[in-house]
Amino acid sequence: MLKKQTVWLLTMLSLVVVLSVYYVTAPKEMGNSPALTANEKTEKPAKQPSVAVEETGAKEEPSTAGDDLFTALRMKIEDERSRLRDELNAIVASANATEEEKSEALDKIEKLQALSEKEATLETLIKSKGGYEDVLVRADDNQVRVTIKAKQSSSKSANEVIHMVKKEIPDAQYVTVEFQPAG
């Protein structure tokens, strides 16, 4: 059986290869995408949940650009989380770290894994219930951003998505639902 370090190394190498291939084949004009440039946070009181519905009217190559955008965002999120997991695993493996620090790092790793699972569950649930082409869920602390690739968008469907998010991630205070046109 392979050691954990060997499996981890092979996983990281495969991730680097996938990212390299994507970087080489990615379209160059992705920087103007609404989902990448709309990172503004709304200032609201901490006790009031925030709900925002955004419609983007981007008329780029709908199916290809949207698929590439969702894939790029997923890879970016996975890359950031992978780096964070590496840092936390380094703390756990460190001989200089105290037991408290190691325990805290393990807790963070578990929370990160649980968050990834909740995001994947939400993506599948929203996609199947709403009949959408693609869904991307990004959760950070108390903020959840949902980007949906759909032919039609409505406040009612956004409200249903928000209820699904609140059911799965109850401590989410800010939920943003963004619709992108599907081709």
From TrEMBL:
Tell me where on the tree of life, at the top rank, the source sits: Bacteria
Task: Please name the source species.
Answer: Geobacillus stearothermophilus (Bacillus stearothermophilus)
Indicate whether NADP appears among the record's keywords: no
Keyword annotations: Coiled coil, Membrane, Transmembrane, Transmembrane helix
Instruction: Note down the stretches annotated as region Disordered.
Output: 32-65
Q: Which InterPro entries match?
A: SpoIIIAH, SpoIIIAH_sf
Residue ranges of coiled coil: 81-115
Where exactly are the transmembrane stretches of this chain? 7-25
The reply on keyword Membrane is yes
What is the name attached to this protein's record? Answer: SpoIIIAH-like family protein
